[in-house]
Amino acid sequence: MQVRRQYRDRGVEVIGLTRSSREEAMAFARRHGADYPIVGAADEAFRDYHVFFVPVVYLVSPSGMVEADGLEETRTVLAREFGS
Asked: Are 18 and 39 in contact (CB under 8 A)?
């Protein structure tokens, strides 16, 4: 994922959440070249972050606050915060 590669050295982490089985998540990662961890999440995590469809991108601060919703908004916030 370009965002991960671009901002990894600045402490930005990308983590995928899934309700799927471990095998399905691994197959997805292989198909799409995902180079980030994908972890199983309880329904509460999807409800707390209002995830109604996937894939979706949120920029979440270390304190757990959603700073951006969607890939373009995430890129905009990261560029403003870190430059480039």
From this structure: yes
